[in-house]
Structures are given as structure tokens and as C-alpha cells.
Amino acid sequence: MPIAVPPGVAVNINGDEVTVTGPKGELYRHFSPEMAITLDDSMLNVSRPSDNRQHRFQHGLTRSLLANMVEGVTEGFEKTLKIVGVGYRAEKSGDGLILRIGFSHQVDISPLPGITLAVEGTNKIKVSGIDKEMVGQMAAEIRAVRPPDAYKGKGIRYDGEVVRLKAGKAGKAIGGSA
Fold this sequence. Notes:
The structure is a single chain. This protein is an alpha+beta fold. It has two domains: 3-74, Ribosomal protein L6 (Outer Surface Protein A, domain 3, Alpha-Beta Complex); 77-158, Alpha-Beta Complex (Outer Surface Protein A, domain 3). It has three helices and 13 strands, in the order ββββββαββββββαβα. It has helices at 53-74, 132-145, 169-176, and strands at residues 3-4, 10-14, 17-22, 25-30, 36-40, 43-47, 77-84, 89-93, 96-100, 107-109, 115-120, 124-129, 155-158. A four-stranded antiparallel beta sheet has the order 11-12-7-13, with helices on one face. The chain is elongated. The protein starts with a strand and ends with a helix. The relative contact order is 0.13. The mean pLDDT is 87.
């Protein structure tokens, strides 16, 4: 499936290295030399040399990575995290964040290169950038500081993530006696 390259985006293919430049920035990546990447009439095409299993999955991976590079330099990527818990909050500090999430100390988080962190209110964190992999990595690192608790649901979660709560001792005692 070809990838449409929008106007204002330049793609430079140099052997197995591809550079994509757009209004939001520039991304480059090395790909497998076995995959043939061509640019025809503002359409990127990826083709594989054979139909064996290794080439099939490299073909899909290469196509997805190229599509994400093109989307990243045109629109960018964003992940939103929510902080749930009484007294839990985040605040902006320069480029980074300060999290107060129930520990005896505050947690300072500095962004990865090319990543922008923003705080909406006191309980929403927006992670944005042009590299989808880096945005996901930064969001996962922030979530790992205090993942959602299984009993009360307190912690840092992705926006839209559903946390299934376990019944505590009281729920177990009611169902277990008879």
C-alpha cells in the first residue's frame, strides 16, 4: 500500500537511509537494505525481494515506520495522561515536570530530546513530538512513576485507559461466607 507524501514534505532516499523533512521538523532512519524504498509522483512504495516470512514482516514494519515518519513531520503525535488521586498533581518546571503523587518526595521528569511536555490544569499531562516512538516512550516513562492502583484506581494512566478495580477485603468477605 503506497504512502502519500503531502505537499511541503521532502523525502530523501539514500540507499537504506531515509530522511523525511516537513513543516514540524526532520526525521531519519536506517531500514533493512533488503527492502526497496522508492518515491514515485509523491507516493512512497516499499517492496520486498521475496515472499518468505522474514521479508513479509520487514515489509510491513518498514511501511508503518515510513508512514509514521511522514505523519510525524506534518501533524505530529500526542499522548495524554491523567493523574487520578486526592492531592496528586503535576506542574511545569522549565522544560520538565514536577509530579507530586503521594511519595514523600516530588518526582522531577525531564523530557527526551524532541519531546514537549505540557500540563493542563493540575491533573492532565500532554506529551507531544514528531517521533511516534519517542512520544510513546516518554508517556510510558511518566506512567511508570506511579501506575494505576488495582484497588483504588489512583495513579497515572493514559487518557481513555480503563482500570478494572479489584474488590477489597469487604467484597471478599461478603461473597465468601455462607
